Amino acid sequence: MSSQQNSYQDIVNFILDNVAKLCKQPRDILSEDTLLATVGVDSLNAVLLCGKIEDEFELEIEPIVMFQYKTAKDVANALINMNQK
Amino acid sequence: MESDEMSIGANSQNGFASNPNMKIVADYNVALQVLKSEFFEIPNLYNYLERLEQATGMSFEMSRCFVNASPFFLENERHKLLRQVAVGFLSHSKLKRWDSFFSEQIKDIINDLPGDRDFDLVANVGMPIFDKIARPLLGVYPSNRKDFDRIATVLQRMVEPMLPLKQRIQSEADFRNLINMLEEATVEAGPGCDNRVKGLPAASLLEHVQMEKPFDQLTCYAFVTAMYAALAPLVQTAVNMLALIYTENSGRAISAAEFDAQFDRFLHLATAPKYIHRIALKSTAIGGSHFSKGTTVLIDIQRAVVTSPENKQISRHMDFGFGTHFCVGAMLSKRILKELVPLFMQRFPALNAHQKAVDTELNVAYAYKFYSVSPVAASY
Ligand code: HEM
Q1: Is the pLDDT reported for residue B213 higher than 90?
Q2: Does ligand 1 come within 6 angstroms of the Cβ of B233?
Q3: Quick check: is B2 in a domain?
Q4: Structural domain count of chain B
Q5: Selection from B39-53, B229-243, B356-370 with the highest mean pLDDT
Q6: For B160-199, how does the pLDDT look when each residue is reduced to its tens digit (9 = 90+)?
Q7: Which of A60, B134, B271, B354 could, after both became Cys, cross-link B372 (CB 3.0–4.6 A)?
Q8: CATH code for A3-84?
Q9: Cβ-defined contact of B18 to A67 (cutoff 8 Å)
């Protein structure tokens, strides 16, 4: 998948689907405004999640981004901005 | 020389501050309590790697082997054993035997610099410390020195709190490669057919651990490689210090006496490591700061200082850490800086700085990628 084709919503859904799997949380309690750190995104999960995002969207992403931008919404927006530059 | 844009101490948080699980400590007394407390430990990288293995199904066996051979990643009995070996080898009395060897090597580094054209403080002054001093001292003779140094001199990046998975996979391959290069050299180097420095004043660290046998052969290699990599802060600090002194003095050197008088200030301002990391094992309050369980504490070395009210000089600092993990290379580092920097200044009374670039990929240290200078007037 190339980054140009990804909509904001694709990225948000991908992040939340994977947060649910990695942190063993029901998917339906997660929204784009959920604070990721409060549902179990620790440094290990941040690294794993970023690995998955890189593979899926062919985007470069540093795991620290998961903490700088605290929700799936903020992470997705940041990713779109970073990769437009 | 134009002013130094590395802005040591300022604005260096790399987004850590916005992580609810990370806390930057800039107060000396709080930092001191953290480093004294049994409730704060070095981040458990070994355990993290095991969890990463479980989660990904990948093997990080060599990375774990390195962690298990590096005092700065460990606590408890294993830490004590490794630290004891390192401290024993780098003690004042042991280092004394290497004194004239160090002086010779430092002279060589400075004399090898060209007096009539540009050179790079990083490549030509800093990096040779690895080859000319660390290699013989620690006994690190790989089959391919260039390849080995390319990897080993940047292992410092491993301590980054969150290395992306791809880089973690790469460093696993790098570790394997480093060990292979040391093993190959042992096989290749039959008696009399190697190019090691001869006539050394004492056994190298590798020879020392191979004789004493506190660990198996693989751990011996990992241990000396980790110690070799641990020289990176010295190399970076040496370059930072030269850059700082010439910058402060509009491109001119200062006298040896002035350097001596101000050594502690230069050392503090030039110190490469940015943070000392700890994890809170339980929720703890220190002097009004609250650390919840699991918080990563980053002690900001540049800011966590005590300044004397009389002369405004820094009277206490964490440049080499404090307590159980106090830097084992502190004495060696001061010994080298106190000779190398004045000798450099004697040879280059004035310098023009041309191009320089801060290593922005390195989040754990203030370091230059390159710093090119040209001598204005050489004294010999
Ligand atoms: C100017 C140069 C250097 C600076 C500023 C520096 C700084 C530090 C600091 C701040 C620590 C404490 C880390 C902590 O508490 O977590 C440390 C530990 C350490 N340093 Fe250095 N270092 C320097 C040079 C060296 C050299 C040359 C060596 C090796 C020969 C070395 C080997 C170590 C080791 C092995 C530890 C871990 C000790 C332990 O955990 O018990 N350092 N260093």
Answers
A1: no
A2: yes
A3: no
A4: 1
A5: B229-243
A6: 757 888 889 999 999 999 999 999 987 655 544 456 777 7
A7: B354
A8: 1.10.1200.10
A9: yes
Query: Whose structure tokens read 């042992």?
Result: B186
From CA B134, how far away is CA B233, in angstroms rounded?
13
ipTM summary value: 0.79
Q: Which uninterrupted H or E stretch holds B41? A: strand B40-41
Crossing angle of the two packed helices B205-212 and B217-229, in degrees rounded to 10: 150
Check: CB of residue B39 under 8 Å from CB of residue B282: yes
Assigned domain for B8 exists? no
Q: Is residue B227 part of a domain?
A: yes
The whole domain housing B347 covers 16-377
Tell me whether A58 touches chain B (CB under 8 Å).
Answer: no
Comparing alpha-carbon positions, the chain B residue that sits nearest to A65 is B15
Of the candidates B277, B255, B136, the residue with the CA atom closest to the CA atom of residue B194: B136
pLDDT tens digits for range B300-319: 999 999 998 888 889 999 99
Closest ligand 1 atom to Cα of B334:
1
Domain harbouring B196, CATH code: 1.10.630.10
Find chain B residues with C-beta within 8 A of A70's C-beta. 18, 20
